[in-house]
Amino acid sequence: MDKATVLKAIIEQRKSTFPRDYTAEEIDDQILHEILKSAEFAPNHKRTKPWRFKVFKGEEKRALGEKMAEIYKATVAPQNFLEKKYVSITEKAAKADAVISISVNFSGLVPEWEEIAATAMAVQNMYLTASVHDVGCYWSSPGLINHLGEFLGLDENQKCYGLFFLGKI
User: Fold this and answer.
1) In the chain, pLDDT over 70 holds for what percent of residues?
2) Tell me, what's the pLDDT at 114?
3) What does the pLDDT average to over 83-91?
4) pTM of the model
5) What residues form DSSP beta bridges with 162?
6) Cβ contacts of residue 109 below 8 Å, gap of 6+?
7) Do strands 98-105 and 135-140 pair parallel, antiparallel, or not at all (unpaired)?
8) In the chain, which residue ranges form alpha helices assigned H by DSSP?
9) What is the rounded distance in angstroms from the CA atom of residue 71 to the CA atom of residue 97?
10) 64 contacts 142 by C-beta, under 8 angstroms
11) Domain assignments of the chain as residue spans, ordered by start
């Protein structure tokens, strides 16, 4: 198969797979590293590499799920609070083998939209790499991510743009 055909097949098979469809099998650390490493090859103006990823596994992942549930409970109006949604937040994190926070570091060297676009391309590389390894993934951007900055240790010039859930399929 020529390179163009292989590339086309990889792009066409890329899809979002949600945690409810993940198996209990762990993602090999080498594959997780390869997924993250692929992000580094995304184009970025002035080589700012604006993406900031933090991997959550095990106890850290459980703490992230609990923090997101806590944020949901604290920020939703009491009349709109849904116990089912509250519980599902921690369940979704638990079902994933790994969760990666996706943040952008705004360098001030280029327009902000370029830093966001470069980060999105980095995540696309991660999607494609995960796909070839039969790792399901999806980028989630619930409103509660706007309250994760302190938990993630983000600086003033950084912003979280979502969470990347991964699990074997």
Assistant:
1) 100
2) 98
3) 96
4) 0.95
5) 102
6) 45, 46, 48
7) unpaired
8) 3-13, 29-39, 58-75, 83-95, 112-132, 149-152
9) 22
10) no
11) 19-168
| Residue-level pLDDT at 53 | 98
> Which secondary-structure segment (H or E) carries 52?
strand 51-56
Report the DSSP beta bridge partners of residue 103: 52, 160
Residue written as tokens 């594959």? 31
Note whether 39 and 126 are within 8 A (CB). Answer: yes
d(CA 39, CA 29): 16
* Count of other CB atoms within 10 angstroms of residue 83: 8
- 1: pLDDT confidence band, cut at 50, 70 and 90? confident
Query: Alpha carbon 84 to chain centroid distance?
Result: 23
Q: Which fold has domain 19-168?
A: NADH Oxidase (3.40.109)
